[in-house]
Amino acid sequence: MGEIRTLLRLGTLALMWGSSFIWIKLGLRAFSPLQVVLGRLVLGAAVLFVLCLVYRAALPSRRALWGHLALAGFFHNALPFTLFAIGEQTIDAGTTGVINATTPLWAMLVALLWRVERRPHWMKLTGLLLGFAGVLLIFAPWQSGQLVSWGALASLCAAISYGFVFVYEGKHLSNTGSSPFALAGVQMLAASGYVLVAMPIGSGTLPQLDPTALIAVTVLGLVSTGIAFALNYQAISQDGAVTTSTVGYLIPIVSITLGAVFLGEQVSIRVVAGLAIVLIGVALTRAKRRRSHPTPERVEQPEPSA
After folding, report:
1. pTM for this model (two decimals)
2. How far is residue 273's CA from residue 281's CA, in Å, rounded to a whole number?
3. Mean pLDDT of 200-226
4. Distance between CA atoms of residues 67 and 73, nearest Å
5. How many helices (DSSP H) and strands (DSSP E) are in the chain?
6. Residues 6 or more apart whose Cβ sits within 8 Å of residue 73
7. Of all helices (H) and strands (E), which one includes residue 63?
């Protein structure tokens, strides 16, 4: 029974995060990228603050912690959410999900450069090289086409931002003693502030009255952002971080499938092959070397979120 509940949680989380790229694409039919992101952040933060009230979770009190949350809100929410929305103006939702799957590779690279991850064994290095070979195959710079575009580069920069901030959060926002709902809520509130400041510059024209786009942004904020964050924390507490991280393998599959079924998108065999290579590389970077003596824990590779 416990295994069934775990599978249901992971499947639901993959569906929520994998479908976020579809909701973004639909929201862009009537809203600018910044308008989509602002709606997503405000609604997601509202869900998390309601959960804080329900569970009587206090907001963090330390000033330094608020500073870390403000930086995390920029690199984990405001920047990548905006870059993905910009990216989906020119590339498919399914392809965006594939690019998002490269996040753990960038996290591993940042951890190595930051010396959070020390002396990686040959399997992790092989996985890193293999993963980046998959990225090269996905983008295929030797060909001209959809992926060689500013939208694709924007999505790749969003994945890099995730990779950086996951390592940063592991250093400064783990074991704080505060409720994860409160931390995520404050983080999204800070991200909303960044987007509000940028709205006069990049908001574009006034949004159109499109029911489909409005529903898409609402679902994106309430379900794929607020509820998904909460479910992710629940899964980590009940199933463990390692088990929960496997949802990252399902997200691109969900995004590709939903994009093909509901939006009629087509993904080339080259992109699918590149995705397979990336996921194999990610699996190798998460491999742990057997040790005869315990060693301090390193930053655990995160699952790609959206």
Report:
1. 0.91
2. 12
3. 89
4. 10
5. 14, 0
6. 186, 187, 188, 189, 190, 191, 193, 194
7. helix 63-72
